[in-house]
């Protein structure tokens, strides 16, 4: 079952409690649809909201103190990510994501990121190099602060910088699309003990390979960075129970 002994993703951090909801607000203190989406997606992937459960727009709006418009936007984003199913005349329902489906998506993600890294090593231009270095430094700083939520968002920028540097717009767009679909599951990755600091070590190897133009190593390092095996895989699956079966 080698296929089922792997899972991918860079993920981060503890799920926020209602007392912390939402963690990030706009400058004016208003809750945005993206923030609502983050909270709902974490509740879905951690099993707080079970497959088949209906998402009541009015109840969610009351919880966040907003109108139904940003809630509807958040639910539509979750539907695009495959976490929610929209049923005409019935509403939005949590969709079950099976382990086999996750493995398949993460295998494709690893291949895409590996290819982006290989091309970036050959094609990276000075502005893209500066963005990659800045994103890497931000990850270093977040890890030094032991701030997994901050690390997660900086990690997103790190991977986006690699997509930007690859010089293939189609690949970059598809990688972003799949990254967005898998972000909730990737975020859980840092629940695995010591994962944030191990991720940072892997980032250093990826940057070093891209810096010297070693496409083969950059590709291999990124694939390994995305894939999770052995005990880390078992720990991640346990964190998803009972959501993933």
Automatic annotation (TrEMBL):
Annotated InterPro entries: GntR_C, TF_FadR/GntR_C, Tscrpt_reg_HTH_GntR, WH-like_DNA-bd_sf, WH_DNA-bd_sf
Name the domain of life this protein comes from: Bacteria
What lineage does the source organism belong to? Bacteria, Pseudomonadati, Pseudomonadota, Alphaproteobacteria, Hyphomicrobiales
Q: Where is this region: Disordered?
A: 1-32
HTH gntR-type domain residues are: 30-97
Xref: PROSITE patterns: HTH_GNTR
Keyword field contains Transcription: yes
* Record-given protein name: GntR family transcriptional regulator
Keyword S-adenosyl-L-methionine among UniProt keywords:
no
Q: Which UniProt keywords apply?
A: DNA-binding, Transcription, Transcription regulation
Q: Which Pfam families match?
A: FCD, GntR
């Amino acid at each position: 079952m080698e296929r089922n002994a792997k899972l991918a993703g860079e993920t981060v951090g503890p799920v926020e409690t209602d007392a912390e909801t939402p963690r990030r607000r706009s400058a004016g203190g208003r809750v945005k649809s993206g923030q609502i989406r983050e909270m709902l997606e974490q509740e879905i992937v951690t099993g707080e909201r079970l497959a088949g459960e209906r998402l009541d727009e009015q109840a969610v709006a009351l919880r966040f103190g907003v109108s139904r418009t940003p809630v509807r936007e958040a639910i539509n984003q979750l539907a695009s990510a495959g976490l929610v199913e929209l049923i005409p005349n019935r509403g939005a329902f949590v969709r079950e994501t099976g382990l086999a489906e996750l493995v398949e998506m993460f295998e494709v993600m690893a291949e895409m990121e590996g290819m982006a890294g290989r091309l970036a090593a050959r094609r990276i231009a000075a502005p893209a190099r500066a963005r990659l270095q800045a994103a890497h430094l931000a990850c270093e700083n977040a890890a030094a602060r032991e701030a997994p939520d901050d690390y997660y968002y900086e990690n997103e920028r790190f991977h986006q910088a690699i997509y930007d540097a690859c010089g293939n717009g189609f690949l970059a767009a598809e990688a972003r699309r799949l990254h967005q679909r898998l972000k909730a599951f990737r975020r859980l990755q840092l629940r695995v003990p010591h994962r944030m600091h191990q991720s940072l070590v892997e980032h250093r190897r990826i940057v070093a390979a891209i810096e010297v133009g070693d496409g083969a190593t950059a590709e291999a390092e990124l694939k390994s960075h995305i894939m999770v095996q052995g005990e880390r895989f078992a720990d991640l699956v346990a964190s998803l129970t009972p959501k993933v079966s």
